[in-house]
Specification:
single chain; mainly beta; four-stranded antiparallel β-sheet
């Protein structure tokens, strides 16, 4: 069993509790919530075995084949000035098959 982290420049290249993902049984998926400024971020999902927390692995989640197929779910939210909630204004699923 492993722990999973959102890893990249947005996490200052560290794996810690701030960017650790947790399993959500409702979605049957690992999720994370991070505060980010508007912009473009490159990131990867890093795994670390629970029995060896100082060892990290990109291949388990990211794969190591350049011909891998990838699916991305893109959610776009908007918050009106003065409101205390976000509205989902766009969604797209993108499949990249090389």
């Amino acid at each position: 069993e492993s722990d999973y982290y959102v890893w990249g420049e947005l996490s200052d290249w560290y794996c810690n509790n701030q960017n650790k993902m947790t399993y959500n049984p409702t979605y049957r998926a690992y999720t994370a919530s991070l505060y980010l400024k508007q912009g473009f971020y490159n990131y990867m999902i890093m795994s670390s075995p629970k029995n060896n927390p100082s060892s990290f692995n990109l291949d388990e989640m990211e794969g190591n084949f350049s011909e891998s197929n990838n699916s991305y779910n893109i959610f776009v939210y908007y918050r009106k000035p003065g409101y205390n909630y976000d509205s989902l204004i766009g969604y797209s699923k993108v499949d990249i098959n090389l």
